[in-house]
Amino acid sequence: MYSGLIVRKNDKMKKYVSKSLVIVAAVISMTLACKDASAVATIFWGTSTSFFALDNDGVTHITGNASSSVAGLVQLVYLGSDGVYNGFQASGTGVKGDDSVLQSVWMGFGTPMSAFTSGQFASSVTDSLAAGSKFMILFFDAPSPVFGTSPNSTAPTTGFYGQSAVFTSTGDPASGGTDTFNFTSNLTAGNPVAVPEPTTIALMLAGLGMLVARRFVRA
To answer: Whole-angstrom Cα distance, residue 74 to residue 150?
Structure first.
């Protein structure tokens, strides 16, 4: 009789332990899943306090302001899976191919509130991209025509833009790593945003040729 009770108790105990193990395993699995979902690295990016973003004259600091509608646009661009910058286009966010804008701010952003320093900015953003990913900073001497919720801000269609060197991340999202991408020298916005179309260039050359021909005939 007693042995039967002991067997029943043992069976109940085994079932209880088995259920407990299943619950514990489920909790651990959920915890790990949540941890993986929230695993991010942080990128601190900007000009640093020592260097500036310059207009196309190579001297003037690009306008900084409290308002994104006045100050020059700045973008942190992820260079896609191939790690190659695919160039600029004067439409949408301005990036091409598999490049994408990770964050958009403006000149003066993150600088002392009393100054909104021209030619400087500082920001940070989190991402879950693997260490070894490549990034670039693009900056403009004109504001975004439509500064939407970051990173979806429209690139300027006039003025000039510049770009930083390519940065490679080392921070591992799984361990909450960090990276700092700062200017290492003054950089100039020397590239025209609006590049003439080939047909426009051809017409300009044809017109120039006609002027030269007329002068030659008159001479």
So the answer is: 11
